[in-house]
Design brief:
By secondary structure, the protein is of the alpha/beta class. The chain has nine helices and nine strands. Strands 1-4-3-2-5-6 form a six-stranded parallel beta sheet, sandwiched between helices. The structure holds pantoate (PAF). Pantoate (PAF) binds next to strand 2 and helix 6.
């Protein structure tokens, strides 16, 4: 059987032209922005865009402005050939993989900043990260002019930042948040999982196991923020190398609740931790998402 075909664009103007041509044919344009090193989670995003749109563009760009000086920009995995094959298989019509200078021309001096949502959770330990995300996503929207763009809910805070950005800049794009895709043992799929040894992978399962315990406690009626955070931390602390945060937060504004507070019917529970060389994140919306199914024995 022949592989589905997928055109690769490296120049911004050639992506713009392809999207214009698709619109001229009456097709809805769907966009799936990624940084590459794609996995089944990304394939699900592309399939979702394909379900909604006649023309799907996936982007593969390791965006330098969203990495801090001591982060993994240089060693972030770059696997373009495999990424293109995965995108084609999942229904993308093209992949946009520009060089850095094309997205950040010499003398570039513009950043997009969404305030309020970006100073907490990941924004607290990764200053400037969400400015980089908001800037590159705005540029991709400007090039592709998508009707729909699909993002994973693993990056829940990022999704909320992009939703805010689209509302504030009056961009005519529908933002779709796709549920987290997990590995068979329950670990949330991430391009950074490939940094983990088997032993580190096993330890990383404490993130989803902690979330799972908290969902069960919430379902039994536990609403005390301090108690729910304690449940998650007690799972993670013995397993991970360091915890960045375990927070209960407002599910729309992502503002953290204090330990003395009591939750209402719905709240974001988000975690970030370092395991070996990888910084991992995961989350559930209590009152909405099921408990992650975790298989800890490997
Ligand atoms: O989620 C990601 O992979 C990136 O943050 C994104 C949205 C592609 C922007 O570089």
């Amino acid at each position: 059987m022949s592989q589905p075909s997928c055109v690769v664009h490296h120049e911004p103007e050639s992506l713009r032209q392809a999207c214009n041509d698709a619109r001229a044919k009456g097709l809805r344009v769907g966009l799936v922005p990624t940084m590459g090193a794609l996995h089944a989670g990304h394939a699900a995003l592309v399939s979702e865009a394909h379900r909604r749109c006649g023309f799907v563009a996936a982007t593969v760009f390791v965006n330098p402005t969203q990495f801090g000086p001591n982060e993994d920009f240089a060693k972030y995995p770059r696997t373009l050939d495999r990424d293109v094959a995965l995108c084609a298989e999942a229904g993308a019509c093209c992949v946009f993989a520009p060089p850095v200078e094309a997205m950040y021309p010499p003398g570039e001096a513009t950043r997009v900043r969404v305030s309020g949502l970006t100073e907490v959770l990941c924004g607290a330990s990764r200053p400037g990260h969400f400015d980089g995300v908001a800037t590159i996503v705005t540029k991709l929207f400007a090039l592709a002019g998508p009707c729909t763009a699909v993002f994973g809910r693993k990056d829940y805070q990022q999704l909320k930042v992009i939703e805010r950005l689209v509302r504030d800049l009056l961009l005519p794009v529908e933002i779709v948040g796709h549920p987290i895709v997990r590995e068979p043992d329950g670990l949330a799929r991430s391009s950074r999982n490939r940094y983990l040894s088997d032993a580190e992978h096993a330890r990383a399962l404490s993130l989803s196991a902690g979330l799972s315990d908290a969902v069960h406690a919430f379902e039994r009626g536990e609403r005390r923020v301090g108690v729910l955070r304690g449940i998650v931390r007690s799972r993670m602390e013995p397993a991970v190398d360091s915890i960045d945060y375990v927070e209960l937060a407002h599910a729309d504004t992502v503002q953290p609740h204090g330990d003395e507070e009591t939750l209402g019917a719905r709240a974001l529970l988000a975690v970030a931790a370092k395991v070996g060389p990888a910084r991992l994140i995961d989350n559930v919306v209590l009152g909405e998402d099921p408990a992650p199914k975790v298989e800890e024995a490997r």
